[in-house]
TrEMBL record:
Function of the protein: Part of the twin-arginine translocation (Tat) system that transports large folded proteins containing a characteristic twin-arginine motif in their signal peptide across membranes. Together with TatC, TatB is part of a receptor directly interacting with Tat signal peptides. TatB may form an oligomeric binding site that transiently accommodates folded Tat precursor proteins before their translocation.
Highest taxon in the source lineage: Bacteria
Protein's UniProt name: Sec-independent protein translocase protein TatB
Record's compositionally biased regions (Basic residues): 150-159
Region listing for Disordered, in residue ranges: 84-120, 137-159
Source organism of this protein record: Leptothrix discophora
Key words of the record: Cell inner membrane, Cell membrane, Membrane, Protein transport, Translocation, Transmembrane, Transmembrane helix, Transport
Membrane protein topology class: Single-pass membrane protein
InterPro entries registered for this protein in UniProt: TatA/B/E, TatB
Similarity field: Belongs to the TatB family.
Membrane-spanning residues: none
């Protein structure tokens, strides 16, 4: 971008030292650094925004392609269903099986099976753990307040 070498920077720094003076040079350099940082952040934000807008445009194009493909598939499925339906309408439908109750065309379906609770006894499982095992593993059996827990675990004073 810029062809600035070390020698050119030294020349610019020397001129700035002579023109601005040694007292104000650190303040000016600090201000120039902050302005340069702001400019870099602004440029990076603009680049990020442009990239986001490009990605959004690409996603919208891809979405449109998928929508078109879905519509084409839907049309082809509907066309094939209509062809099959018209072929069935023209076919001989005099045969019906008397053993199949759904073939009569009444639309009746049996009700779904009723809900049965699995009958699991989770309290039995929890309560079936022996007390000696709970004691050995340190399982809490009773609720304890915060103050009681602090008092229980506080180190004892010697003396």
């Amino acid at each position: 971008m810029f062809d600035i070498g070390v020698t050119k920077l030294l020349i610019v720094g020397g001129i700035a030292l002579v023109v601005i003076g040694p007292e104000r040079l650190p303040k000016v350099a600090r201000m120039a650094g902050t302005l340069l940082g702001r400019a870099q952040r602004y440029v990076s934000d603009v680049k990020a925004e442009v990239n986001r807008s490009i990605e959004i445009e690409e996603l919208n194009k891809m979405k449109a392609q998928f929508d078109d493909a879905a519509r084409d598939i839907d049309r082809s499925v509907n066309d094939s269903v209509n062809e099959i339906g018209s072929a069935l309408d023209g076919a001989d439908t005099s045969y019906t099986s008397s053993s199949d109750p759904y073939a009569s065309g009444t639309g009746w379906e049996p009700p779904p099976p009723e809900y049965r609770h699995p009958g699991k006894k989770w309290r039995l499982k929890v309560g079936a753990t022996p007390q000696w095992y709970k004691q050995r593993e340190g399982v809490r059996r009773h609720v304890q307040s915060g103050a009681a827990r602090v008092m229980r675990h506080r180190p004892r004073r010697l003396g």
